[in-house]
Amino acid sequence: MDVSLELNHQHNGGSKFTDDDGRRVKRTGNVWTASAHLITAVIGSGLLSLPWAIGQLGWIAGPVFMIFFSFVIYYTSSLLADCYRSGDPITGKRNYTYMDAVQAYLGGFKVKVCGWIQYLNLFGIAIGYIIDASISLKAIEKSNCFHKNGDNSPCPASSNMYKYMIIFGATEIIFSQIPHFDQIWWLSIVAAVMSFTYSSIGIALSIVKVIANGGVKGSLTGIGSVTQMKKIRQILEALGNIAFAYYYSVILIEIQDTIKSSESKVMKKATLISVGVTTLLYLLFGCTGYAAFGDLAHSSLLNSFRSFNPYWLLDIANAAIFIHLIGAYQVYCRPLFAFIEKWAIQQWPGSKFISRETTLIGSFKLNLFRLIWRSVFVIITTIIAMLLPFFNDVVGFLGAFAFWPLTVYFPIEMYIVQKKVEKWSTRWVCLQMLSLVCLVITIAAATGSIDCIITHVQGHKPFKTSY
User: Fold this and answer.
1) Which sequence ranges are marked TM in the entry (predicted)?
2) Is the link from the previous residue into 179 a cis peptide, with omega within 30 of 0?
């Protein structure tokens, strides 16, 4: 796991056309571009489950935990930003990726652990996005059915969910053939616009619902009409969902590598802006959604508006989710694509099958190895999604699984090494206490999510059970 993902750096010395590391394309990023990248990365499908998560925790604990996670993300991201350069913060060696930073400061076995967690998590996120995208298309079909046949119509669509997964997978096979990350910038912009589209629609619909209800629903302690064991399990799962909604530290170093100067200072400002905007949007979305539906808030908010009129507005929101997830799938899979392909080139440097590029149309180039392996990757993730369509449980588990190591542990440990924080000093003890608290939350949330997954597996019949 020691292969760098950075493919476009040449170490020939700086000039007016290159940066200090000889990079061919000079960095031009600033606080606003970095903020835009972070906001785009953070706001995603995890937002849809926030009203349900607040419903498990209640009006007090729900917002408090949301603010707590935003604080943790901001603080540890600030520590991580200081680790972009090794040694001198101005002239020290750049760490182009998250794994490069772990290699520079911690090294050894921890690099491999970081790599496995990072790439397994990216693999899992890809599966979750396929499931969520299919749920969105299924929601459009059911919304149209209710509008046509009435609110009491059964409108069965259990088998169509798998059809939608296949449609999403086929679309990703096509987009996966775009060779390099920088060539899908337009897809990322479209995805970002779509994320703001469906989140805005969700907030607006919830406000309309609250007005129609004549008041705010929900309670201070959350859902109470369940057994104590189920209540505990759902609270733990809700913590995982909130953690996942804030998850972006794994790509922070890569974003920081686009900033033209004063990287650490600029990145901290960008982190403050992005976390502030995201937290405000999350609080609005989660609280208005819970206020609108109370204990009946669905694990994906838009599904709560089953027969809303005008129904086409709800269709637009679900279509926006589908389009957003097409781009998000590509963004999160690109680091994994680059890692495997660079590893293959290093293992078989003389193989024409791996390295040969054939120009097809314009500047588009086809590589047989890329065509086959990326297609197989998409097919595998699609099949797994079809076998395990437990979206809310998967989201909770992914958030819990990756939150502590990638968001808290590695940033804190690297910061301690970088700043030479003395062991058992006040700062060292406080950092370790923060890490321990987040570890306990991670273990608890993972336990709750795994329990929910086991419960669903017991009654699940592949390709037959509806979700």
Assistant:
1) 31-50, 57-76, 116-140, 184-208, 270-291, 311-332, 371-391, 397-417, 429-450
2) no
